[in-house]
Amino acid sequence: MKNAIKYIALSWLFATFFSQNLAYGSPIKVVTTTNIVHELVLQIGGDKIQAEALMGPGVDPHFYKATFGDMRKLAHADIVFYNGLHLEGRMQSVFDNLSSMKPVVGLGYAIEQHLLLKENDIVDPHFWLDVRLWRQAMHEVVLRLTELAPQHADYFDARADAYLLELNQLDVWIRQQIATIPESRRVLISAHNAFGYYGAAYNIEVLGLQGINTTSEYGLQDLRHLKDIIKKRKIKAVFIESSVSERAIESLIAGVNAEGGKVALGGQLYSDALGSAKSSAGSYIGMMRYNTRTIVKALK
Q: Is 81 left (phi over 0), alpha (psi -120 to 50) or beta?
């Protein structure tokens, strides 16, 4: 009964505001979920869009629930971009209801399916950590904005071409940097398995206490398994994540060192969210460079 009432309320809210949307010549009103998706949409849309993100720095999208204020923003939007592949799992019913009224675009569903990674038959949603896949997401943004505002097609294409050059340079740079780490030391351990695409793309082994979703629990067996790997392979450092509690990694470090091993905190990585706008990790390219420098410095 509660779900039925919620559905009716959402439908009324969306229907109430939908008729007020896109007017010819006005900026496209865009709402995004994560600030990673938000930054990509801004890169393409430029001054032809008016964009707002629901999630800011340090927010874990796996746990995020839409507020009533978010519902109002979504209702006023001309188009909604989200990551998809169940990254924002607790918002999926909202996207499903809204999609019958306006374009609601899950960027993960635009990625070539054979390139998506899986863990226990669940698709890994963190595809942006492979720059090549983020380029595919970029093309989806261009397509969808052009459908809404075809008069700006050349503008969107030009911005995409310029950004593509930067992404290509970034991809090459990351490969060169990771290659400087001795192969035996290329093991990236963090709180959850967010870096699978990064590892597959840039030739570094990735391990995490939790699975691809931070809502999953880790147990003593998971902790013991990683401690044994760290000690046996003499891994120098492990990493915390900006959007995940530090507690698990701190326990891992303490456990290894208490048992005669030696491992340090390699630094903080950005996985599910960018840093603050003024930080070195405040853009997608900045985040990828920051993460790579942090990894290389700690493991080399």
A: beta
The CATH architecture of the domain made up of 176-299 is 3-Layer(aba) Sandwich (3.40)
Residues near 228 by beta carbon (within 8 Å), at least 6 away in sequence: none
3-state helix, strand, coil in the chain (%, to 5): 55, 15, 30
Residue with tokens 């793309």: 201
Question: How far apart (Å, rounded) are the C-alpha atoms in residues 163 and 43?
Answer: 7
Predicted model pTM: 0.90
Size (the chain), residues: 300
Q: pLDDT below 50 — which residues of the chain?
A: 1-5, 7-8, 11-12, 15-21
**pLDDT at 142 (0 to 100):** 98
Assign a CATH topology to domain 2-172. Answer: Rossmann fold (3.40.50)
Q: For the segment 91-144, what is each residue's pLDDT rounded down to a tens digit?
A: 999 999 999 999 999 999 999 999 999 988 999 999 999 999 999 999 999 999
Helix (H) / strand (E) element for 241: namely strand 237-241
Under DSSP, the state recorded for 19 is T
Span 14-26, pLDDT tens digits: 544 444 445 567 9
Tell which residue, 295, 214, 204, has the closest CA to residue 247.
214
Q: Where in the chain is the domain with CATH 3.40.50.1980?
A: 2-172, 176-299
Tell me the C-alpha distance between 88 and 104, whole Å.
13
Cα 295 to the center of its chain, rounded Å: 18
